[in-house]
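Example 362, ligand prephenic acid.
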Amino acid sequence: MAEDRLKDLRSELDVINLELLQLLSKRADVVQRIGHLKQTRGVAIFDPEREKQQLDRLVEENPGPFPDSTIRHLFKQIFQASQGLQEEQRKLLVSRQRNHEDTVVTVRGIKIGGGVPIVVGGPCSVETDDQMEKIGQEMQVQGIQLVRGGAFKPRTSPYDFQGLGEKGLRMLRDTARKYGFATVSEIVNPADVEMAIQYVDMIQVGARNMQNFELLKAVGNTRVPVLLKRGLSATIEELIYAAEYIAARGNEQIVLCERGIRTYEKATRNTLDISAVPILKQETHLPVLVDVTHSTGRKDIMLPVAKAALAVGADGIMVEVHPEPQVALSDAKQQLNFAEFDHFMESLRSSGMIPALVTTHG
Ligand SMILES: O=C(O)C(=O)C[C@]1(C(=O)O)C=C[C@@H](O)C=C1
């Protein structure tokens, strides 16, 4: 008989537990909404005054049998857990704290960030069919799986070559299909994103557009991998927030790219912030590439700089290659010709910094 009574009371408790759980979850939901408001208004999470108000009211209404001290203790636990929820909400989606595992971005089956460094190569701008045909052959010889080529060129001078636009993207796509590689190309106008993803496998947000928030939102709305370059004068924190804009729209297929920043130094085109690589790897879970062309602007130091980038943990490097750099319509001085690119790749391979070339016979 006593057995049955115990069972009944326990069943009663089970029901109450579920009700409490429902109420706790309902409370947590409100807490998260408050957390969101606090975040947008820049208000601190911990609010001891508000906690005291609630505790005083609860103690005042306490019907017993729990003593006031127990009620204070129990609710303090709830406040702490609520604070934890709000703090969790504040961690950036791209932060390493939020996701401890490395994100591997897959572009047409090519993995960036999976532990095997990649080389992204190709011309600064897509110019002619002949140029792209030569590029296709050279990229194939060197086993380059992800090829870059600019069609929308944000140039310093409005009188410089601005790129072939959609036609350029089509040429890049056609070469890629013929030679079997994936493509990345820069888009500068949010309105062009939908059109561009018909052609390219990865969208680049260039340095000059790192804080073009409408563009970041537009690429964030797609599920296409994004290569996000650090702005010319952007801090590491600003780059991370730019990536967050993309992630906040649901696209976490983001690769960051250090491409040098503006300093007083004139020996290089920009100053490669090599320490940004391990910092970005530590602070975020995203893969990081280093653009050795734009950071140095000098062919003579590209190889040691590429080695340094890979040595500090970059997931790959980007380098501009052109069949005839001297007649290139953009970046003529800094693009490697094929012989220079062959040497560059061979040196990286023989030093074991990138995988050996897999040759197919027959
Ligand atoms: O009222 C707030 O400001 C909240 O964030 C909610 C809440 C709570 O759980 O009651 C959470 C943390 C604060 O320290 C104070 C109160």
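Summary: The radius of gyration is 27 Å.
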